[in-house]
Amino acid sequence: MSEVTTLEQQADSGLMLEPDELESWIRTAEEQCGLIVQGDKKMLRALEELVLLRRSQAITTLIGEPGTGKEKFARFVHVLKNPSRPFVDVNMAGISEHLFESELFGHAKGAFTGANGGRVGRFEQAADGTLFLDEIGDMPYDRQGLLLRALEQRTFSPVGDNRQLALKASIVCATNADIHHAANIGKMRRDLHDRLCRCVVVIPSYEERSQEHKVSVIRYLTRKIGSALRCPELTLDREALQLLLQYPIDGNVRGIENVLERAGTYAVARGQTRIDMVHMQRALEEVEKSQDSSPQSTHLLSQLIRQAMSQGLHSTLEPLRSKIVRAVLEHAGGKQVRAARLLGITRQTLGRYLSD
């Protein structure tokens, strides 16, 4: 990124860091975390917010859609705060309820049936590094109190052990769930919600970002994929790049990477070092095909559409709209971008219909 570009973005975005310092952090994010922020005001602002808050002891909560780079941002927080210490990540939605305390806090030998040895939990593993609690918005309600107590008191006890261990790690949480709504309807404890909302950074979806930024991401991913395929000279031609930029991709940056990986594999398999239109078109078709083959509620969707047609549009649209949108969303495998495309509406309109 040129100094002129950085200065322009700083002025336009209301950024507070000096250009040289901002440039340095942008390079650090890319080189150490694989995080690309240049070319987009919202991404630059998110990075700057983390830099400005790096001395805060509050929990950092990252909110963004799946595939937007929440883990990369979490690793950037780690670089800011504890670069030489452990980075421990935990999928909070994937922990079995009956193993929740043992997984997070550890357990002593003989603490329960089958505990033939002690276990060091994730909190203790993180030591004075960074503990990344991913998908925190989807954790079971009846386990939220245990987590909240540890976060508030900054101490925890392994199961079957009377010792109180200090929680020394910096805490970073991430979710794609609407935690405000979850708290309002009783799916998240209000006191946990309030603690998570002290230092929130919102990560924009890939769709919201500028074209300049998207090009930077695509070129970075092409280099990364080329290295993995032992073809470091792998590039992307202009036509293939334009096709990828115009094509609505499910899965945000992760979806882009999936397409590029397939297209790159096709190119290298043919002894070529440039991804062209043929490779890109084939990759997009195959990715689209794999999404269409997943289990869907096609019967329900057809039923709803037939009902709307038989009863007349105006009399059936309002009561059926929400059901149709939800059915199409399920048909699209839960991918909002794909569902919106199938319905011919924007993702924002889709979100509004889903909340009706």
From TrEMBL:
Keywords: ATP-binding, Nucleotide-binding, Transcription, Transcription regulation
One GO BP: regulation of DNA-templated transcription
InterPro entries per UniProt: AAA+_ATPase, AAA_lid_NorR, Homeodomain-like_sf, HTH_Fis, P-loop_NTPase, Sigma_54_int
Keyword Transcription regulation: yes
Any one GO molecular function term: ATP binding
Domain Sigma-54 factor interaction: 36-265
Stored Pfam families: AAA_lid_14, HTH_8, Sigma54_activat
Name of protein: Two-component system, NtrC family, nitrogen regulation response regulator GlnG
Lineage: Bacteria, Candidatus Peregrinibacteriota, Candidatus Peribacteria, Candidatus Peribacterales, Candidatus Peribacteraceae
